[in-house]
Amino acid sequence: MSMASLGQPSPRMGRCYREEEHRVATTENKQRPSDPATDNSGNGPWKVEGLPPAEDGADGKSPPSSNRRTRSRFIAVLLGLLVLNWLVYQVLSEDAPSRLDVPYTTFRGEVQGGNVAEVTSRGDRIQGEFRNPVTYPLEDGESSVRFETQRPTFAEDDGLLDLLVDQGVVVNATPPDAPAPLWQSLVFGFGPTILLVGLFIFFMRRSAMGGIGGIGRSKAKLADPTVKRTTFEDVAGIDDAEDELREIVDFLRNPDRYRRLGAAIPKGVLLSGLPGTGKTLLARAVAGEAGVPFFSMSASEFVEMIVGVGASRVRDLFETAKKAAPAIIFIDEMDAIGRSRASGMSMGGHDEREQTLNQILTEMDGFTGSEGVIVLAATNRPEILDQALLRPGRFDRRVVVSPPDLKGRLAILEVHTRNVPLGPDVELHAIAASTPGFVGADLRNLVNEAALMGARRNREQVQMGDFTDAFEKVVLGTARNIALSQEVKERTAYHESGHALLGMLIAGADPVRKISIIPRGMALGVTIQSPDADRYDYDAAYLKGKIVGLLGGRAAEEVVYGDVTTGAESDLEKVTDIARRMVGRWGMSDAIGPIAVLPGPNDDSKGMLFPGVDHVAPRTRELVDAEVRRIVEECYNEALQRLADNRPRLDSLAHALLERETLDEPDIYQAVGIDRPRRAVATA
Predict the structure, then answer these.
(1) In the chain, domain spans
(2) Phi/psi at 428 (nearest 5 deg)?
(3) Catalytic site residue from 148, 472, 490, 496
(4) Which of 8, 73, 136, 279 is the 20 to 30 Å CA partner of 352?
């Protein structure tokens, strides 16, 4: 065996090996996505995973030979339709009424008899119309008013023209049976086919773009970069949620910092919270800070009557976002399509909402990745979302946007009053302290209503009185101009005074801010109480004190008049709700014990999974009702006793209210002779 055969391959074998090695390497390079860190294409570190390799026919386009065959068939069909259209037009256009061929002598006789109305001539051929039908031949001949005849060549000097003129015959030079103009022949000969083919091409292109009329295309709105961007400077009062999202912004700006350590940004961020807390504002601030395309869409816009449209729109939305990566997709009201599939709400396993949800799950974490596309979603009901959405890899970060506290409300008021000229008496600290439970949207509406109040009063600056009136309008409703009798006004004054007096007498109760007997909304009078500081939990003593205060109006009527009216309807509903939650949800009853026997306001999972099944025994329900009645009766007896013991204060407050109709906090405490508690001050 030669050395060549042992140590080196023959020239032919070496060439074949190198060709095979080059072919395999080329195929692997086509199929292997480029590394973001080493990509020199100028596209930056962002890449879209899951796209097919750029091979012939692999990008969704047909090969050149297939395109040529399709084009040839289309041209052949088009030419055939054009020829057919032309032939049909010619057949229809030749279907004209026939003319009666008469001798020249008969024609002259009819002219002399005044029976010829109109003639036209080209050469020696004469065509025209009789006034009355003429039959030729005379016996069993055809009758018609349309005729034609041939003028003999030797009759050129027979004075026919003068005869026609003398008889008043209209003489034309254009034959009545002349063919249509060329443009008319082209329009009617080829126009219908061209219009039909054009419509066919139009609808085919629209279908390729997502259905006829674009029904399968995404309706997402792209934020206009020319408009003033929303940044974190426009967000206030929700610092915890803002800090959670700053990391998303930093990743979109500096992705290499995280990738060097192997960190991956969350693919989805779920913003949950009460309406108006600023979820959409936070999403826009993330897009504005990161400086990337921001696609926003409501979840309800995915679902249509036609099955499959929702999934098509999801695909179109993600494809559009991938092309613009890095980008942000914001889906508002996610619970519209993300409701748990185990709820039993759908009649079948393939309804439109479920298909849309499945497509979102696939796009967020399926075989096709979406690197560089971050999905933000907002919902008011996170507890009903499907668990597949909430698992890591999809919405793997959940941000709760809570109502702002005292400090947060003050910051929000400062943001919304940037462009509002405020009077020297406006105290934003006091406004923030008197609006517990208000979210960002409520505070913005309050500032706007105050500005509208000042504008209606022709003021140069918004005064504190404008904010007070705006607060009453927002919370209580617009004042009604209705005439009340003195008896009704007096009873209403005692009713509201009972609420206020018990609010001042019970230790730990919320301070009384204002009393009014001016009818607003559905109420004849109102009493406003609000805490100095935000409260996040309540003890049994506070809740019972609140029940006593709510029952103060009914108790005052019974103490003063010996009977009650329907004015306490709303108070009784609130009292019953508080007492039932104390017994059935918060374990504040010794008879029930520390167990929850009543569902929460959002706990509808039992009803969805087991409709018609009650998990509470009848005996337990009876015990709950008995405990609720016991608590309410004890609180009502306490309200009656306290008001009876302080009858002079009750009368004094009611008389002051009748005199002035509205009392602010200092006037209320002065009328009853009780020292006003110190007010907490909000600090920034």
Answers:
(1) 100-172, 221-401, 406-476, 486-672
(2) -65, -30
(3) 496
(4) 279
